[in-house]
């Protein structure tokens, strides 16, 4: 059997490397994990916390997706992209929940199937990597959408058509899944880490440039639009840009430590200070899950229409007697 202990030295679930379960004779352990535990810097976080946060995040993002599907007023390119961002967060939640459950079963000797664990490990890696790739891509897509809305307001509907939005969504998902699969297949190459870090930096620079241009020139641009209804449109567009700025800020705070971890893996893998930083990987994973948990709250807080629809969904779930069925709750127009 091939030694797979280095598989996840840099990937999302280093805290629970499934590959380390299927080493020959169970005599070999993950070197990185061993070093982390031996240096005295590691922090033990109960698996129940990962499972709880993952489930809450999963439910929140499912509600966001259902709300966007239900409310026709939210059927616009920006909300399509936000819906995809919620799906990206769901990938992290699903991967975390599945992996935690598998580990709990394995710890209690209820699951002993090395081959299945190894394959599941690969699938979870791809899901996690696809999540970060698609999340960054959709943040860039939403930023470009807001930029067009602000500076090309009169041509927005001809530029960002539904067909083009769907084409962008398909392109982003295909690219994210394909690149993530390649990253996992060639996980042992440093080029994979370099590509991930480079993509993260490029996405941040792209968003920063658009935001800088939007917030510096938006005031000047708004003065040129004198009609009242267009001024309101401008204000709405700026509100969307501010919402996206909050989302990007939360993304950087939650994912930043993980990408710093990747950089340090390349720069100083044997340095004692870096090793101590590596040992806090549990915390970085908690932050990643928290990003998936916080995003839906931002959507709801910043969008009154989405917040109203979410309340309707939750009310129907909590008081089903008021709704004849879940389908009626989600698609009332079909029952009238």
From TrEMBL:
Pfam families: 7tm_1 (PF00001). Keywords: Cell membrane, G-protein coupled receptor, Glycoprotein, Membrane, Receptor, Transducer, Transmembrane, Transmembrane helix. It comes from the Eukaryota. Its main location: membrane. Gene3D superfamilies: Rhodopsin 7-helix transmembrane proteins. GO terms for biological process: regulation of gene expression. PROSITE patterns: G_PROTEIN_RECEP_F1_1, G_PROTEIN_RECEP_F1_2. InterPro entries: GPCR_Rhodpsn, GPCR_Rhodpsn_7TM, Melcrt_ACTH_rcpt, MSH_rcpt. It is a multi-pass membrane protein. Belongs to the G-protein coupled receptor 1 family. Receptor for MSH (alpha, beta and gamma) and ACTH. The activity of this receptor is mediated by G proteins which activate adenylate cyclase. This is Melanocyte-stimulating hormone receptor.
């Amino acid at each position: 059997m091939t030694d797979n202990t280095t598989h996840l030295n840099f990937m999302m679930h280093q805290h629970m490397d499934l590959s380390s379960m299927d080493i020959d004779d169970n005599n070999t352990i993950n070197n990185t994990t061993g070093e982390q535990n031996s240096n005295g810097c590691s922090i033990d976080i109960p698996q129940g916390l990962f499972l709880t946060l993952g489930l809450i995040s999963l439910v929140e993002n499912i509600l966001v997706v259902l709300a966007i599907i239900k409310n026709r007023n939210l059927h616009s390119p920006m909300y399509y992209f936000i819906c995809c961002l919620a799906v990206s967060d769901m990938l992290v939640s699903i991967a975390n929940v599945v992996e935690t459950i598998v580990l709990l079963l394995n710890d209690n000797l209820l699951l002993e199937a090395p081959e299945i664990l190894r394959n599941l490990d690969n699938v979870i890696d791809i899901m996690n990597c696809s999540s970060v790739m698609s999340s960054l891509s959709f943040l860039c897509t939403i930023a470009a959408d807001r930029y067009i809305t602000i500076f090309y307001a009169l041509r927005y509907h001809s530029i960002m058509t539904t067909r083009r939005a769907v084409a962008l969504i398909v392109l982003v998902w295909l690219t994210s899944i394909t690149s993530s699969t390649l990253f996992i297949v060639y996980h042992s190459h440093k080029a994979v880490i370099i590509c991930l870090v480079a993509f993260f930096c490029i996405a941040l620079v792209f968003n920063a440039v658009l935001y800088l241009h939007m917030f510096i020139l938006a005031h000047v641009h708004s003065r040129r639009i004198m009609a009242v209804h267009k001024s309101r449109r401008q204000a709405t567009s700026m509100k969307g840009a501010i919402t996206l700025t909050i989302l990007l800020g939360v993304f950087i705070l939650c994912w930043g430590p993980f990408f710093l971890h990747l950089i340090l893996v390349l720069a100083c893998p044997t340095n004692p200070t870096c090793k101590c930083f590596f040992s806090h990987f549990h915390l970085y994973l908690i932050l990643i899950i928290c990003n998936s948990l916080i995003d839906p709250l931002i959507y709801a807080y910043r969008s009154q229409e989405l917040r109203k629809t979410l309340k309707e969904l939750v009310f129907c779930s909590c008081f089903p007697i008021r709704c004849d069925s879940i389908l009626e709750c989600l698609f009332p127009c079909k029952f009238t």
